[in-house]
Amino acid sequence: MADEEQEIILNELSDEELTLQMHDDLYDGMKEEIEEGTNILLGRGWEPYRVLTEALVGGMKIVGDDFRDGILFVPEVLLAANAMKAGMFILKPLLAETGAPRMGKMVIGTVKGDIHDIGKNLVTMMMEGAGFEVVDLGINNPAEDYIAALKKEDADILGMSALLTTTMPYMKVVIDTLIEMGIRDDYVILVGGAPLNEEFGKAIGADAYCRDAAVAVETAKDYMARKHNQMAAG
Ligand code: B1M
User: Fold this and answer.
1) What pLDDT, in 10s, does the model give residues 54-101?
2) For ligand 1, is residue 74 a contact (CB within 6 Å)?
3) 94: CB partners within 8 A, 6+ apart
4) pLDDT score of 5
5) Sign of CA dihedral 58, 59, 64, 66
6) What is the C-alpha separation between 26 and 11, in angstroms, rounded?
7) Atom 1, ligand 1: which residue's CA is nearest?
């Protein structure tokens, strides 16, 4: 009997214990427990953004470190990603609920060859929460898809995400294509993803590298404010 696993009642845990338990549950890809934990923290008055960053993103960081170190493998990481998405699904409408005025329009997608989408989805959620209209192109996007969407949607901002050192150079291909077409300066170009940095953003000709989703929102707001001021000045 002593070996029998004791069932953990999430609702009986303190906030701190529950956050740590959610890190474990995310690690183990336990989707239903992540949904339950997310709802419990919201019920205790946590801001959606706090649940996102402390319980979900915090847990995913551990998954990422162990994936890097060869402790976890693709199938486990996929399960963790699936559990993370289930939590994000609950938070999405709440993050978007701020009722902010329309700030501008962004086309966003993960670049060609890359199927990582959790970070991009987070950026989308946070941008929508801040009042931006976002057209999400999903994963594995060639330059033509970005360009077609930018034109069709009459977007202000292009956002590109890449999580692999092998796919991040493709961002330059997209920007160079825009330059060749003479339309580069029609858009603010923001890039992000774990392997990027500010230097890389500058080197490929993006307007800004965004470390995380919150920085993406602030940067986009800054650029839109500048654009509106320029328009007002004639
Ligand atoms: Co992959 N993977 N993966 N993976 N994976 C990484 C990226 C890796 C760093 C893991 C590691 O080795 N430590 C490594 C890349 C190494 C490298 O390039 N140097 C890696 C690898 C190698 C691979 C495969 C090649 C593995 C294989 O098959 N052998 C393969 C590649 C497939 C492909 O894309 N062609 C692969 C596959 C996968 C899964 C499918 C299993 C899964 C993806 C599931 C999914 O996304 N639906 C997966 C995952 C989950 C990861 C890790 C563990 C987590 C990524 C994540 O979601 N992070 C990752 C390890 C890591 O990053 N430490 C890893 C959480 C997310 C919130 O953060 O995406 O950084 P992030 O987004 C942040 C910021 O970067 C920024 O804001 C976000 C929110 O704050 N941001 C933007 C991101 N995009 C932005 C765009 C913007 C602005 C900001 O635009 C304006």
Assistant:
1) 999 889 889 878 988 899 888 898 899 889 989 989 998 888 775 555
2) yes
3) 42, 48
4) 63
5) positive
6) 17
7) 116
Contact 154, 125 (CB under 8 A): no
Give pLDDT, residue 44: 98
Ligand 1 pocket check for 83: Cβ under 6 Å: no
Ligand 1 pocket residue status of 125, Cβ below 6 Å: no
- Rounded CA-CA distance 31/110 in Å is 24
What's this model's pTM, rounded to 2 decimal places? 0.85
Task: Measure the CA–CA gap between 39 and 137, rounded to whole angstroms.
Answer: 29
Residue 31 corresponds to which tokens in the numbers above?
């989707």
Ligand 1 binding pocket includes 190 (Cβ within 6 Å) = yes
Residue whose CA is at the smallest distance from ligand 1 atom 43: 116
Dist CA 211 CA 191 (whole Å): 9
- Give the count of beta carbons closer than 10 Å to the beta carbon of residue 21: 18
Taking the C-alpha atoms of residue 88 and residue 56, their distance in angstroms, rounded to an integer, is 8
For 74, other C-beta atoms within 10 Å of its C-beta total: 8
Which pairs with CB-CB distance under 8 Å and at least 24 residues apart come from 16-20? Answer: 18/55, 19/54, 19/55, 19/58
In angstroms, what is the C-alpha Rg of the chain?
19
Coil, strand or helix at 31: helix
For ligand 1, the distance from its centroid to the CA atom of residue 123, given in whole angstroms, is: 14
